[in-house]
Amino acid sequence: MAQTRKKRAASPETAAEPARAADEKPDANAKVHELAMKRWRRADEGDRENRELAYEDLEFVEVPGAQWDPKAKAIREDDGRPCLEFDRLGTAILQVTGDIRQMRPAIKVVPVDSRGDPDTADVIAGMVRYVENRSDAPAAYFAAADQQVAAGIGHWKVITEYGSDSTFEQEIRIVPVPDGIGVRWDPDAVLPTREDGKFCFVPVDMSRDVYEETYPDHPAAEIGDERLSATGMGGWATADMVRVAEYFTKTPVQKTLALMPDGEILDLTDEGDEEHPEKLARVVAVQREGGRVRVEKRPGVKVERFVVSATAVLEGPDEIPGRFIPVVPAIGIEITIGKKRVRRGLVRKAKDGQRAYNYSRSTEVETEALQPKAGFVGTEAQFKGYEHIWETANSANHPFLPYNPDPKAPGAPQRAQPPVPNAASAQCARQAAEDIKATTGVYDASLGARSNETSGKAIKARQQEGDVGSFVYIVNFSRSIRHTGAIVTGMIPHVYDTARTLRIVGEDGKVDLVDINKVGGLADEDQPLDKIQNDVTVGAYDVAMEMGPSYTTRREAALDGMIALVQAAPQLAPLILDLLAKAQDWPMADKIAKRIRTMLPPQIQAEEAQESGEPMPAPPPPSPEQQAQMAAQQRQQQLAEAQHQLEGQKLQVEQQKIQAEMAKIQGEIQRAALDHQARMAEANRPADPAGAPAGGDDPRIDAIANGLQDLAHVVSMIMETLGGGDGAPAADGPPDPQAGPPGPIDMPPGAMPGPTSEAPPGAFSFDPSAMGQPAAPMMGAP
Questions:
Q1: What b/e string do you get for 71-110 counting C-beta neighbours within 10 Å, with b at 16 or more?
Q2: Taking the CA atoms of the chain, what radius of gyration do you get in angstroms?
Q3: Same domain assignment for residues 578 and 701
Q4: b or e along 540-575 (b: 16 or more beta carbons within 10 Å of the residue's beta carbon)?
Q5: Is the pLDDT confidence value at 444 over 80?
Q6: What are 217-238's pLDDT values in tens digits?
């Protein structure tokens, strides 16, 4: 369940004794301020050299005239010689910071315990991007990146604020730190993100007027205050400036946690929490019911924020949600040499190359500028009386130059030989330019200059090779972005702890509405289901980085890849045409892709609908071609059914013919039997006196019986041929393949009917065995 933001409740003792609390607070603030100033002096002294060199590096690039040594510049200016600056470092810095702007890492959130949910992790990642979007975080990131590359370090910070002046809901915001070089960290912190530091100072210099308006109850220290001078804090107050500092502390605390049987973790640390009695009652109730509750102590931290001046605590303490100090450093190149930590940026080692380049180029310009001012050589008598004309000969365009003939001079005054450009200066300038490239790692190919490469792949490979020398800044910058994601993710359960609707931002920049910390669904008997959708207040989540180009760059690369795939395998175009359209920058490209998606095969549409959670789209109406094909198939089926019925009718006719033949044979048998009976009766009479035989067997019966057996075998073969198997059509319908032979004959092929005592309807009954004859095959027996 989402919990409302925890607020410390006032105890009765505190309410009853406000005077004692007021007396204790100044004492507590005095201890906080004393410890803060002690830590400030230690942090200021520990990083002083790196900080001073960083300010010089930044001034070297940004302040006009800072690229000349002060002594050399003063000498040249006294002589009237030029001190020109041809900044080549600025372009190299822009190249590296441009790569950072193009390759900004993407923050991804992943669950790290059993209570974390992958879907909720995606929502939290969208909330982090939402925070970046509403904060204009890239402005803070890139301002710090400019200082990181040029001076070796930059900073931004994460704050919480109310969404507006008419709401109780807070928001998270990422803001820049203008003076990122001046941030003081705990000297004992060793991690690149300084997340192991116990304190941090973010100084802000403001005018005295603004300070007095902001903190009227705390007058600024006077200039020359003995207390400030004695403690080394004299720079905190000047004639027109007062320094204040945000002071962040991270204090170890002992937390009491209770693990409930259902996996829920209750924090029982703060007894002053207004929800503490309710949590304790839940633990006791579960234990009484025989449930096992695991209660243990865990080391934790408490992060607090103060605002301090040189003499007092101006604000605080304000508890910061999460476990990190919300200040993020972006470090350039940092190396520890023994006990000394050295930090620099791109400018530090390229200064001498830039100074040599400026000196050489200024000398070349100076030499070339003196060429048109070469003087005239002549005797004094030649110029006498015309001095005003010859003095302006180099600046005015006189139509003629008069002079006095002088026997001592061979001819008219001549212009002196102009100074020749110094080849050594040009060579020195070229060498200085190469030195700058070597120290920065940014060569001409990285800046887009033409080289001997001709193919696009070769040019791109050369540019990427030049980026390797400056990749350390990109890696450190991405590490800082990752730490920012961890800070924001740690703040989200405390700041966004109530049910609300947010506009989260997807990786592709699409804005979606999502509900967080809301109960959803119904249980039995319309009782609310105790299940929260997108509960961001439970579970542990970590931040993973996806290093690479921005989404726009990757989308363009995907578009090129899909186009190449379609060109190589045109048969795949109908399957990926919707994705190809979606990757375009056209207006309404999404709508075009949606229409193309309706033309995909049904199995692909079903898979897309399952992934997006949408219902399966209705099948499109058949096209005229499909309708014609279906009609042709239906006609073929009807024709096959009609032909089947005709074959059945033919079989019925054949069956009727066979039954007629069988009836005829039965008649023959009956007549033969009557004749046999008559002969037998004749044989029982007294013998003819003439000695004729009294009677005997009729050979026709045996012949008829044998013929009937052969006929039965032939009929069986005919039925198999006409019926296509063992079955034959019924008399009133199509043939049944499971039925036996139709008609009066119902016996296996080649078998003879056994004796019968009852004739079928329309026939007579007799038993040949009664007359001492073998049983004749009888047809029509049931």
A1: eeeeebeeeeeebebebbbeebbebbbebbeebbbbbbbe
A2: 53
A3: no
A4: ebbbeeeeeeeeeeebeeebeebeeebeeeeeeeee
A5: no
A6: 888 766 555 566 556 666 788 8
Per-residue pLDDT tens digits for 149-192: 999 999 999 999 888 777 778 899 999 999 999 999 999 999 99
**Residue 389 placed within a domain:** no
Q: Within this chain, do residues 657 and 576 fall inside the same structural domain, yes or no?
A: no
> What is the rounded (10 degree) CA torsion for 324, 325, 330, 336?
-90
- 358 part of a folded domain: no
End-to-end C-alpha distance for the chain, whole angstroms: 83
Angle, vertex CA 714, rays to CA 711 and CA 718, nearest 5: 135
SS3 string, 390-408, reads HCCCCCCCCCCCCCCCCCC
CA distance 174 to 488: 9
Q: Cα separation of 16 and 13, whole Å?
A: 5
The confidence score (pLDDT) of residue 754 equals 43
Whether residue 588 is found in the same domain as residue 641: no
How far out from the chain centre does Cα 433 lie? Answer: 42
- Distance from C-alpha of 243 to C-alpha of 315, rounded to nearest angstrom: 14
Question: Does residue 326 carry a pLDDT above 60?
Answer: yes
Cβ contact 733:648 at 8 Å: yes
Pairing of strands 541-546, 106-111: antiparallel
Q: Name the domain boundary from 612, 636, 658.
A: 612
List residues bridging with 333 in a β-sheet: 344
Percentage of the chain beyond pLDDT 90 is: 20
| 724 touches 647 (CB < 8 A) | no
As for how many domains the chain has, the answer is 3
- Indicate if the pLDDT at residue 51 is higher than 80: yes
Per-residue pLDDT for 638 more than 80? Answer: yes
Residue 382 lies in a domain: no
331 vs 321: CA distance, rounded Å: 25
Q: For 598-748, where are the alpha helices, taking DSSP H only?
A: 602-612, 624-684, 699-723
- Which of 338-342, 378-382, 529-533, 594-598 has maximum average pLDDT? 338-342
Contacts 24+ apart (CB under 8 A), 427-435: 428/356, 428/359, 428/360, 429/357, 429/360, 429/361, 429/364, 431/356, 432/353, 432/354, 432/356, 432/357, 432/360, 433/88, 433/353, 433/357, 435/350, 435/352, 435/353, 435/356
Classified as helix, coil or strand, 203 is strand
| pLDDT exceeds cutoff 60 at 469 | yes
Yes or no: say if 258 and 265 are a contact pair by the CB < 8 Å rule: yes
Domain end: 295, 324, 353, which one?
324
Under the banding of pLDDT at 50, 70 and 90, the label for residue 771 is very low
Q: What is the pLDDT of residue 16?
A: 41
Q: Which amino acid is at 500?
A: R
Check pLDDT > 60 for residue 259: yes
Q: How far apart are CA 166 and CA 707, in angstroms?
A: 114
**For residue 25, pLDDT beyond 70:** no
**Of the candidates 558, 766, 540, 571, the residue with the CA atom closest to the CA atom of residue 670:** 766
pTM: 0.63
Residue carrying the six token digits 């004094």: 380
Q: What is the DSSP letter of 416?
A: P
Which pLDDT score, from 0 to 100, does residue 365 have? 84
User: Do β-strands 518-519 and 511-516 pair in parallel, antiparallel, or remain unpaired?
Assistant: unpaired
The residue with greater pLDDT, 152 or 549, is 152
Residue 298 domain boundaries: 36-46+198-324
Contacts from 485-489 at CB under 8 Å and sequence distance 24+? 485/107, 485/109, 485/128, 485/543, 486/324, 486/542, 486/543, 487/158, 487/322, 487/324, 487/326, 487/328, 488/127, 488/128, 488/131, 488/158, 488/172, 488/174, 489/109, 489/124, 489/128, 489/541, 489/542, 489/543
pLDDT, tens digit, 9 for 90 and up, residues 335-373:
999 889 999 999 999 999 999 998 888 888 887 776 666
Contact 678, 698 (CB under 8 A): no
